[in-house]
Amino acid sequence: MPYISSWDTTDFLKWSKAMLDEYGKIVKISNLPGRKDMIMVFDPAVIAEVFKNEGPYPVRFKFEAVHYFREKIRPDFYDGFEGIFNEAGESWLKARLILNQPMMTVAVVNIYVPKVDQVSKDFVKLVKALRNEKMEMPDNFKNEIFKWTLESISLIAYDTRLGCLKQNLDKDSDAQIMIDSIDNIFELTYDLDLKIPFWKVFPTKTLKSLIDSSENMLRISQKYVERASAKFDLDAPGTSDMSVLQRILRLDPDTKRAVIMGMDILFGGVDTTSNTAVSVLYCLACNPDKQEKLYQELKSIVPADPSENLTSEHLAKSKYLRACIKEAMRMLPAPNGTIRTLPQDAILGNYFIPKDRADVWVFNSTLYMLDEHFPDADKYIPERWLREGESCPVRKASEAHPYTFLPFGRGLRQCPGMRFAYMEIETLVVRMLLEYKLEWNHPPVKFLSRMLRTAVSPLNFTVLDRNK
Ligand code: HEM
């Protein structure tokens, strides 16, 4: 395996593709200051081996700066519980099982369809107000999408609407502080956790900023979880319409832990879903024929009267909708992949990997644009995700190796928010497309892949009224 001393991570995806092209499907990088060896794998069969060897308590990579805040700055609140992302071993599994029950159950997700639909309808109204005289969205449209996601996910984490979609939010409002804090934490975590960790030697400005944002997020989360939980009678018999937070508190009545889980739901759900929603809207705007096909499908499924709520049945019927989302996640995925530290010795490819000694980076997104896995990979072809029997100009995605396309990770530690993420994005796309025709009339958007891939040039979508 090659030895590489340089560490240019300006764009993670380009960097990993360069590694694959230069060194092949498995690459080891040693002698990283303050870090374990890094092994990058780009072969679906080897990726399958990684997950087979992940053990009963998969270890992903601790967000060390978050750990620092939780253990050293606020041990009074966290009290030894580091949350879903950072916990390991049995303590992770215990917390994860509490989260899985409400978040991964279809019936619970379905309860949220009308509520999340209302958020998407409000977003569609906001879009109208944001349009300029050229019918274009403002440069910072990405932030508006971010607000839509935070508003939807606060329904799950806090059982409440934060009010993010109001125009001209007061800078001191909880919604605005939350928006700024999450954005900041995400950005800073990349610098603190994936670059040389000077902050471990002395308290850098970046670390101080992370601490401030984490304090803000904790204060606001605590307020909303406590407010919501005061409404619940946790001793009353359970009902099928209970919210996620209510269910979490019934399984573990400690509100502090519910606050921590709520923050992790936001941390895991907001940036990932926002960036994915951007990818989907952008792909549809750039591919008017696919957008039209989807619009026709939606028109035939969804009630014509916009005051009628969407239901899970409407979403389930719309097969092309899910295909359009998956294809956008393939071409413009938000996460690069995931990481595992193997708890047992393993053979990956032909190499011996001793236990606990390396972080194995499962960089699936690097595979998504390779013709060998997805023919005509640079073309937006949602049809490749449709079932057998449906016509498609290229080989179907179902024929790719099952460990090729893993946008939500895999195994016991895979994303618990997958069903919510699809549902949220589906309601957004339905509401946007029924109201507007999207166009892209500018040079291609520039994306930068760091902790997540995100658009770094303005998102000036042209948004035309459908009913005119
Ligand atoms: C399109 C949107 C999303 C994408 C692409 C995504 C992707 C991922 C990925 C790749 C992981 C790591 C999985 C692994 O290591 O195997 C993850 C973990 C996680 N995600 Fe998501 N996610 C999305 C939305 C959400 C939403 C909406 C929520 C919550 C409502 C959420 C909550 C979490 C949590 C809590 C974890 C950590 C799980 C653990 O460590 O046990 N995600 N997500």
Automatic annotation (TrEMBL):
Cofactors (names): heme
CDD domains in UniProt: CYP24A1-like
Major localisation: endoplasmic reticulum
GO molecular function ontology, one term from the record: monooxygenase activity
Lineage: superkingdom: Eukaryota
Gene3D superfamilies documented for this protein: Cytochrome P450 (1.10.630.10)
PROSITE patterns hit by this protein: CYTOCHROME_P450
Record keywords, A-Z: Heme, Iron, Metal-binding, Monooxygenase, Oxidoreductase
Binding site for heme: C415
Places the protein is found: Endoplasmic reticulum membrane; Microsome membrane
Membrane topology, as annotated: Peripheral membrane protein
GO cellular component: endoplasmic reticulum membrane
Protein family membership: Belongs to the cytochrome P450 family.
Functional note: May be involved in the metabolism of insect hormones and in the breakdown of synthetic insecticides.
UniProt-recorded name of the protein: Cytochrome P450
Species of provenance: Cloeon dipterum
